[in-house]
Amino acid sequence: MASIETVTLEVADPTAAHRFCTTAFGLDTQVRLRASETSTTGFRGFVLALTVSQPATVNNLIDAALDAGATSLKPAAKSLWGYGGVVQAPDGTVWKVATSAKKDTGPATRQIDDIVLLLGVTDVVASKRFYTDRGLTVAKSFSRVYVEFAAGASPVKLALYRRRALAKDVGVSPDGTGSHGLAIGSDAGPFTDPDGFAWEAASLAHTP
Description:
By secondary structure, the chain is α/β, with parallel strands linked by helices. It is about 20% helix and about 40% strand. The protein has helices at about 15-25, 55-65, 125-130, 165-170, 200-205; strands spanning about 5-10, 30-35, 40, 45-50, 70-80, 85-90, 95-100, 115-120, 140, 145-150, 155-160, 175-180, 180-185, 190, 200. Helix 1 (about 15-25) runs antiparallel to helix 2 (about 55-65).
């Protein structure tokens, strides 16, 4: 079964981006960083979502991100599905922190249960077919709206949303031009998907 081995953010200042990831979310090795001068305007077409156990932990991580220089896109709040908020890091990456729980069951922590890479795609059904043809296994599928793939031993799950729906969910315009600023390392790569997301061979992803 193919799965993601690494997620690399392509940013102008990897040192500053690494400092943000570790200070805000305690992510040291789970997300990699690579210097890039490629320009991007608007929505980059993806979101990194952090799933946690309770609202207090959402607040803890969102506050830490804001203190580390992030901009609030959606303040943490209750919704029909749970509790969550969205921020944008100084490097432009959009981060969502959420929980399905609506009440706290203990003191706030910084424990992250899952990291989910949400890709905004034009056609969920076509992209689902594209990825299953390359060895990924569907774990959840909701018609033309959302698809989540099995993660295997990977620390990062992959899910697909319609681009406009994903942008609306995180509080940004769906418009954007330029590079996605993202490289996905997997034993399924290398290839570029129908929406221009670049996958690379895991051996390349591990190259310093």
